[in-house]
Amino acid sequence: MRRHTFTRFAEALPAAVLAACSGPQSPLDAGSDEAAGIAILSWVMFAAAGLILVAVLALAAAAARAPAEQPRWATREGWVVAAGLVFPIVMLSALLAWGLSITGGGGGASSPPAAFRIAVAGEQWWWRVTYLGPDGSALFSTANELRLPIGQRVEVDLTSADVIHSFWVPGLAGKLDMIPGHVNTLPLVAGRAGTWRGQCAEYCGGAHALMAFTVTALPAPDFERWMAAQAAPAAEPDNAEGRRGRALFLASGCGACHAVRGTPASGTIGPDLTHVGGRPTIGAGLLPTQRGTLAAWIVDPGHLKPEVRMPPFPVFRGEDLRALAAWLESLR
Amino acid sequence: MSRLPDPRPRPPEELEQLQEVWRQPGGWRLASAVNNTYVGVFYIGTALLFFVLAGILALLLRIQLAVPENDFLSQATYNQVFTMHGTMMMFLFAVPAVEAMGVYLLPNMQAARDLPFPRLSAYAFWAYAVGGLAFFCSLFFGLAPDGGWFMYPPLTSSEHSPGHNTDFWLLGIGFIEISAIAGAIEILVGVLRTRAPGMTLDKLPIYSWAMLVFAVMIVFGFPAVILGTALLEIERSFHWPFFIAEKGGDPLLWQHLFWFFGHPEVYIIFLPAAGFVSMILPTMCGTRLVAHRWVVLALVATGFIAFGVWVHHMFTTGLPKLSLSFFSAASMAVAVPSGIQVFAWIATIAKGRLRLTVPSLFVLGFLAIFTLGGLTGVMVAMVPFDGQTHDTFFVVAHFHYVLIGGMVFPLFAAFYYWAPTASRRALSERLGKWCFGLMFVGFNIAFFPQHVAGLMGMPRRVWTYPAELGWGWINMTSTVGAFILGLGALVFLIDLARNFRPFTGGNAGNVWNAGTLEWLPGGNYATRSIPIVTSLEPLWDQPDLAREVDEGRYYLPGAPTGRRETIVTSAIAAEPQYLMQMPGPGWPAVLAAWFTAAFFLLLTVKLVTPAMVCGVIALALVLRWMWDTDLGPAHPPVDIGGGIVLPVNCSGPMSHSWWAVVVLILVAGAVFASLLFSYFFLWTVSPDVWPAATGQALPGAEWPLAAAALLVLSSALVWWAGRRLEADGHWSVRLGLAAAAVALAAALAAELAGQRATGLSPTDSGYGAVVYMMAALQGLFVATLGIMALYTLARSLAGLLHRHRRATFDNTMLLWHYAVGQGLIALAVVHFGPRVL
């Protein structure tokens, strides 16, 4: 019975390990040199650990089956010292040297200067993303998504507005915590075009599970176009529904928390919505950005994301709600 | 010593008297028992209860995660349940369980009649049981903590967690930590001072070594988290900003204090379990442990290295590369002693012939699981790998392999192995094999896939996850495994219900043909007589020993003073030094624990007045309990056999109570060291709130100088009182103590007055908070010593204090000198530091 389960388990194992090689949030599905280096280290360690585990278990099995006459090797302390002291020290020293050689942190002297900086602040439970100019001034603010030019070194300054969060895009780099009173800098270099999912990795209360974001790497020209579009104010609505939506937004006090550049709305408590329609997700990775999801969010965000700080707005319904959601969706 | 075993017949009434003296109360009065075999079994049972409760919480978590976007548990409930699961498993199950096994096993293994402070064991147990159950019940009122078991501020600050939930964690756990320290003092003094004559350190069972290192680690590790919880609770209640970045505090201070405890904690749990394995394997293989000395060395080395690895929990906080490298190397180094033990166990299996009993199966399961957990431990010690796997399910899998593999499997081996010493019947081999099979298979199905989940990017502590990430099947597998594991635990409970029969006056005996002393025949009094130990496995080397011991042919075959007694031996050579009279069943310690628990719980829900009433009652009960201690030479010296005549009870540096106070001082010193660390840490992180930057005036030099002079005066007065006690100058002793207490309090008043004169307030900044915290800690000692001084005065006035009966005075004096030393260092740091550095 037990053996049977074991066999099945052993058969399922390789499939499971292979499945782990891919996925939008797997550190082994590397999109950067740094992540690839860590992935190689990981695979080597998995293989070595597998071999050592098998060797130890085989040794234990051999020991348990040994004949009643004591084998001479078993009674000697020498091999206990060799296997338990010398072998690990040699192995671990080699591993440590390798590990430290690919440890980031503190900024290596050899790394090229950053092309530009992005400030990301963790807030319960979303990401405030601000692209910075060469002088450190804010170019524009967005939320829950980063876009990077392929192959350029970008430095991300991580801070927190409330509790500790942790910024983690497994496909590009290891995680780094966002701690009140500290600024941690994480260099990112995307090696190829693609979109990776990131998620808060330090428990930050309430909706910690629902605090994700995306990072998209673009070829340089596309990236430049995106930057220019983001820096621009919101486009004028080109239809009646859009104008009605904008009027409702401005009249209902949404601007107390949200900014839409190009309109009087300039709140800073919640995410800047100037180009919200162009972001892949709303609610910090919760739902795809569509008219329907925007409407559902506005009416009762707490239903979709418990404990969210935005209050529900059941006052919007019918035509009004459709207009509001349509205008937000049009902000690309 | 050569005259033992004594072949002469023993007087017939001797055994009867021994039994009478050690008789346990029946019925509901059983709760007043203080004997280690009784308290030990209650203690183990309660730990097991928490294991089951926290295990049920784990199953709830697994149901919620079984499928993506599940709504079995709400977000708020899930956050409470995972916090409680971790907290209960660590604080209410793991540490108490190994401590409980120590209370139960150590005296028997060392052939002592009991541990040196039976009522302290009872107090620690009841405080833990009552406090722990009340803590658990907070779940039913939605009041359970929800900040995660490591409670990082500022999430747990009053701003982000305004409810009582966090206070339940801080006060509930702070209080259970204190109970753990009480247990550690008991075990430390017990291992060192209550051993069978002849049980020198090289003949000390491995398990005793493990518990010695365990207790030392608690003494140095727990104070950091006790201070941490105190600082956080004070911040929450009184707004002293230790962890608030805007005011010059730092959230990372908590992480340092927590993990300075938290990582040694893992070894605190593992070392006793390794001790179980090193006891069980030789018996099951019928041979001595190979590389015994190396195993002892490995235990001690683990204890040391474990204090140098805490930062590996903080690899992702943005520390400089140099610190990362050091702690990465240390974290890998800690694998080495474990490796030595693993190979020593395999060598022992090879040397002997392993019987495949249930304890053996659990040990083999442990070897397999723990080895894999150790290997993944090396992986996460690698900084870049940790950056990807920290706070993911990979780490969840890793530490369950280490903790369930490294602690729960050996503990179950230990249950099956030692049950025959406590119960009339052994546990069932048939059910035991089912239990093992289900647990082993279930465990691996539950936790192996979690490595994969982590490598697919699944963070820990998430109550839900989207379907499109493809984590569903892996979580479902894990959930199925968890239920199989739970089924294994259920089989164990059935086995217990069917076969475990403690407190019946008899036991199943040496069913495994083991070689150590806990398998000697005996009753509530432990063994009839106390043997001379000449080897590591006396029952193997002296085939007649069990019979001779039971016939009373060795030391102390009766109860010569008519009370419970045990022999106190020297720490290294285990030479008999004196006979200690011990207490029988009694209520004060038990009730004191109940009222202490009530004090903390009422304080948690801010019912201050009832809390204070309970606190005063608890204090009165403790003093009542203490009143019966310090018996002095209550009986003329006693012939314990073998030509040895021992004095009865003892004062001075040889006394077991002196040793306990020294250990307590080490605990206090570790708390103070943690506070000094906090002071310098905050100074380094936020020099901008220190006087040099803010222009905050320091108190004039006259204040600290006056305080220092008063402290020195108070120590001198106590010293003088001690000299006068030697001459039985009772009024000088009383006056000296009273004057010393006044001087001690005046020193504190001078410090506070000096600080207040500058306008500094503890709520101003991290600087103000930590400066006043130094004074607050000193205040705790002033209050404690004030009570001890009054108590000593009362004993003096009652005629219970004189030069042959002075342990009360000596203990007060020791703590007094410590408090003065601590006060002087605090003054130097607070006043000298900012002026000079």
Entry keywords:
heterodimer, A: 332 residues, alpha+beta, Immunoglobulin-like, 2 domains, five-stranded mixed beta sheet, three-stranded mixed beta sheet, 9 helices, elongated, B: 837 residues, mainly alpha, Cytochrome C Oxidase, Chain A, Four Helix Bundle (Hemerythrin (Met), subunit A), two-stranded antiparallel ribbon, 25 helices, 65% helix, 2% strand
CATH architecture call of the largest domain in chain A: Sandwich
How many domains is the backbone of chain B divided into? Answer: 2
Radius of gyration of chain A: 26 Å
The share of residues in extended strands of chain A comes to 15-25%
Secondary-structure class of chain A: alpha+beta
Average per-residue pLDDT of chain A, rounded, comes to 90
How do the strands of the widest beta sheet of chain B line up side by side?
1-2
Give the CATH topology of the largest domain in chain A. Immunoglobulin-like
| CATH class category label of the largest domain in chain A | Mainly Beta
How would you spell out the order of helices and strands of chain A? HHHHEEEEEEEEEEHHEEHHH
How are the strands ordered across the major sheet of chain A?
3-2-1-5-8
Number of helices of chain A: 9
As residue ranges, the low-confidence spans of chain A are: 105-109
- CATH-scheme architecture of the largest domain in chain B: Up-down Bundle
What does this structure look like?
The complex is a heterodimer of chains A (332) and B (837). Chain A has 332 residues and is an alpha+beta fold. Chain A has helices spanning 2-19, 33-65, 72-75, 77-101, 220-231, 240-251, 291-299, 301-304, 318-330, and strands at residues 116-123, 126-132, 138-143, 145-149, 154-160, 165-167, 176-178, 184-188, 194-199, 212-218, 281-282, 287-288. Chain A has two domains: 20-65 and 104-231, Cupredoxins -  blue copper proteins (Immunoglobulin-like, Sandwich); 240-330, Cupredoxins -  blue copper proteins (Immunoglobulin-like, Sandwich), CATH 2.60.40. In chain A, the strands form four sheets. A five-stranded mixed beta sheet of chain A has the order 3-2-1-5-8, with no helix packed on it. Chain A has a three-stranded mixed beta sheet with strand order 4-10-9. In chain A, helix 6 (240-251) crosses helix 9 and helix 7 (291-299) packs across helix 9. Mean pLDDT of chain A is 90; it is low at 105-109. Chain B is mainly α and 837 residues long. Chain B has two domains: 33-499, Cytochrome C Oxidase, Chain A (Up-down Bundle), CATH 1.20.210.10; 685-836, Cytochrome c oxidase, subunit III, four-helix bundle (Four Helix Bundle (Hemerythrin (Met), subunit A)). Chain B is 65% helix and 2% strand. Chain B has 25 helices and four strands. Chain B is globular and about 85 Å long.
